[in-house]
Design brief:
31% helix; seven-stranded mixed sheet; Zinc-ADH_QOR/CCCR; ADH-like_N; Zinc-dependent alcohol dehydrogenase family protein; NADP; globular; alpha/beta
Length: 328
């Protein structure tokens, strides 16, 4: 099969076209012909940092985690999928799991689900990593109907899904963005937009919560922005975040009695730990999408498999609006 490989890591690394053996089918797995895959920030981190990240695969490496495609063969013990099924998932591109920048992937059947009928292959490929992350974070933070929910970074990959899911579960959703295009997308997705460049945390907490704070804060920006989340949260509020590779003063969280939920969705893939939970979340996302409540936003720029390097550059440029997708 055709694949785009990395033979070395680093800022100057390049993807090179290669003809390699189609992966062998294994028990509990399915062979999927990939129609599309999406690029996530973690993919660019692996390409740039290589061995500095403990989750990077050995070179020559096939990166890419998200995909959508069609089942071509079913391994022993798999009962939920048949040849010809359209599926999607996040199942490779790290550690010892070959990725999606190729014609085929052998995916653990616990890490996939049937694709929503009303989503294209490109849209479905954009959903797994960010969808699982947003779903897990909101559920662990005990989202409930009627809550006031703040999403930091609502125009980003994870954030724009979190807005839609929070709306689906009946919350009153607000979201921060840093420009006209970002706030316009946030409003389009059904949240009240907050421009963090022109409004202070104290300003928008007073304006939207009468100073009480938000019941739940989903922080897809993380790092130092967590301090803004602590400030924005209500007493005994819930905070979910995807970025905590930092040192912070937790005093504000202490005095408010906040609960902090750290989401690292790669754990099931890395450690073969409760992988069936990812399949269950993906099935739920399919149902929500088919109900018309969830639709990934795609960047307007299109890329072929051979343009994997350009797709990475597009994401790293910060100019993409929506998920960057590669089509086979």
């Amino acid at each position: 099969m055709k694949a785009m490989q990395l033979n070395a890591y680093g800022a100057d690394s390049v993807f090179e076209a290669a003809e390699i053996e189609t992966p062998a089918l294994k028990a509990g797995h399915v062979l999927v012909k990939i129609a599309a895959s999406s690029v996530n920030t973690v993919d660019t981190m692996i390409r740039n940092m290589g061995e500095e990240l403990p989750l990077s695969p050995a070179t020559p490496a096939i990166l890419g985690m998200d995909f959508a495609g069609t089942v071509e063969a079913v391994g022993a013990g798999v009962t939920d999928y048949a040849v010809g099924d359209e599926v999607y998932g996040c199942a490779g591109g790290l550690a010892d799991l070959p990725g999606t920048l190729a014609e085929y992937i052998v995916a653990d059947s616990q890490l996939i689900a049937h694709k929503a009928k009303n989503l294209s292959m490109r849209e479905a490929a954009a959903l797994p990593l960010v969808g699982i992350t947003a779903y897990e974070g909101l559920q662990r933070a005990q989202i409930a109907a009627g809550q006031k929910v703040l999403v930091h970074g609502g125009s980003g990959g994870v954030g724009h899904i979190a807005i839609q899911l929070a709306n689906h579960w009946g919350a009153e959703v607000y979201s921060t963005g840093g420009g006209d295009a970002q706030t316009a997308l946030i409003e389009q997705l059904g949240a009240t937009a907050i421009n963090y460049k022109t409004e202070t945390v104290a300003d928008y907490v007073a304006k939207h919560t009468d100073g009480a704070g938000f019941d739940l804060v989903f922080d897809s920006v993380g790092g130092a922005n967590l301090l803004n989340s602590f400030e924005a949260a209500a007493l005994n509020g819930q905070i979910a975040t995807t970025v905590t590779l930092c040192e912070l003063d937790l005093s504000a969280a202490h005095f408010k009695g906040l609960s902090l939920h750290v989401v690292f969705m790669l754990i099931p893939m890395l450690h073969n730990h409760k992988r069936d939970q990812h399949g269950a979340i993906l099935r739920a996302l399919t149902e929500i999408a088919e109900a018309g409540a969830l639709k990934p936003v795609l960047d307007a720029t299109k890329f072929t498999l051979e343009q994997a390097g350009e797709a990475h550059a597009r994401l790293e440029s910060g100019k993409a609006m929506g998920k960057v997708v590669i089509e086979n």
